[in-house]
Amino acid sequence: MLRLTDVHLAYGHVHALKGVSLAVAAGEIVTLIGANGAGKSSTLKAISALHPLRSGAIEFAGEAIHALPPHQVVARGVSHCPEGRRIFYDLSVRENLLMGGYLLGKKELEERLAAVLDLFPRLRERLAQAGGTLSGGEQQMLAIARALMCNPRLLMLDEPSLGLAPLMVEKIFETVLSLKKGGLTVLLVEQNAGAALAVSDRAYVLETGRVTLAGDSASLARDERVVKAYLGG
User: Fold this and answer.
1) Are 56 and 171 in a shared domain?
2) pTM for the complete prediction?
3) In whole angstroms, what is the distance from residue 144 CA to residue 213 CA?
4) Which backbone phi and psi does 27 adopt, to 5 degrees?
5) Is 187 left (phi over 0), alpha (psi -120 to 50) or beta?
6) pLDDT digit string, tens, across residues 43-58
7) The last residue of a domain, from among 150, 168, 187
8) What's 175's domain CATH number?
9) Chain segment 122-162, per-residue pLDDT in tens
């Protein structure tokens, strides 16, 4: 479904991605793990066309998307839930969700709104509440729900458990698994490497902008290098 080939990305003189190649098949959860600054978030930004490539190619469903503007990437079925939630604090929960479905017609918009509220019933109770007044866990639910409003084929999640209490982290990962069971493909960036490997099918390890390890998640969770660097072994 998704393929990156020799992707290079730079912020000025900082070479953030140095030839990243990876693939995500339909129906998979694939996770990217690595230290801060390894290039995980930059990889998602490259896919979303939020930052232009220096070189390389990104294909989604057989179509090159790296030269498209971000809204057309979303229209192709790629949705990005960014690190830090990035909700609209002054808008209500309902307004935040409607913003996520801005490409949809009125009928489909209402259908998607009903679907995401079924997935996150707590948000239904807070539809009129300002996004900025929600708890951290509720804000993360809102961010994911907003990303789901456009009915994506691929959902990219950047650090969904960051700063959350353990019970809320468990809820978030249960939601990720339920989305997979519903047929959604997920590309996950997560600082909690143990949890990410537990819910994903395959994983890539990024170090200083390069993929250094790749394989099925169960095998990588037993790899001494991964255990030592990311699992506290």
Assistant:
1) yes
2) 0.93
3) 28
4) 85, 0
5) beta
6) 999 999 999 999 999 9
7) 150
8) 3.40.50.300
9) 999 999 999 999 998 899 999 999 999 999 999 999 999 88
